[in-house]
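Record format v2
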Amino acid sequence: MAPFRSFYSPEAMTKTISFLLTLLLLPGLAQAQHPLDEQVPVRGLSIAAPQPEHVDEFIAFMRDELIPRNVNTLLLRVDYNYQYNSHPELRDEKALSEADVKELVAVAREGNIRIIPQINLLGHQSWAGTLENLLKVYPEFDETPHVEMPEEYKWPNEDGLYCKSYCPLHEGVHEIVFALVDEIVAVFEADAFHAGMDEVFYIGDDKCPRCAGRDKAELFAGEVTRIYNHLAAQDVVLWIWGDRLLDGRTTGLGMWEASMNQTHRAIDLIPKDVVINDWHYEQAVPTAPYFAMKGFRVITCPWRFVDVTKAQLDQMLTYRAHATPAMKERFAGMMHTIWSGAKPFMDQFYGRVSSENARGGDQVAAFKALFEEIGKLESQEGGE
Ligand SMILES: [Zn+2]
């Protein structure tokens, strides 16, 4: 009698139905998902977009190195390296054409890589002694026009000049930068945009007629929210670096990888579906749970030390293994950051120049180590 009864039992029916559903859904799932998605959903690389003359070499690099390593996210720092039609005056002298970008988009699609373009908004409007294009062409947007660009840049300096910022309350700035954002999102056919927003030292300057005396956390959060709303209207997700949301004093993290200018309270003022890129390069500081517990998806970002990089991956895996379902999905993965141009990185990668950089770091070795470790997870998975 037992077999007869079990044939009609609710459990058996449920099993049969779910088995049939699996058969129906499997082909679609198999295409969309990768075995590693369970352990490390985002497996990213962040790098400057290639110069036009290096697009072909970069495409070969994507095919030969990124796709076989199961990289599924490519953050390309584009800034002014695109032939913008909305504001041709902001183009770099040499800049990617639409055809160049479409080649990158095609190979990314072929390898299931999601490209996320970046333009630095708010901060990083200059680098060392050089103004970036926005403030070069529109000096009226400068948050600190009284700070002159030095002949020879040195850190530290009297002005505390690291990078210039635009004034987030200037009435003309968003119309221009949003036109660039819309164009770059469209040409890359992107569903996410990275606004940078790291290392903003100049914000709410005492001499700015619009920002003086305002709460810096509110200014920062206001700008994040404004960009977020602009993108959300087009179903595009906002990614930012996380350092301005960490308290540099209490954590001892200091002014670079955290905030010493009171912007950190913005963590409670911005929309929760902004994706946080939590970068730490000298040690595997466990800040990801802080972001996750605040409700954000957080991606951990290493750079140049192999041991730090491996420790960060281990942490991510541990957090996911022990988290509640609600928290688990917020530990969204890893993104390796490369702070050189695409061409110098490829030269380092293929041993044409040394990849060792300051303090014994090696960004190529760290990149390779990260994806080697991630690859091992796949072979473990394969045994099941
Ligand atoms: Zn201002």
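The chain has 13 helices and twelve strands.
The first strand starts at residue 42 and ends at 48.
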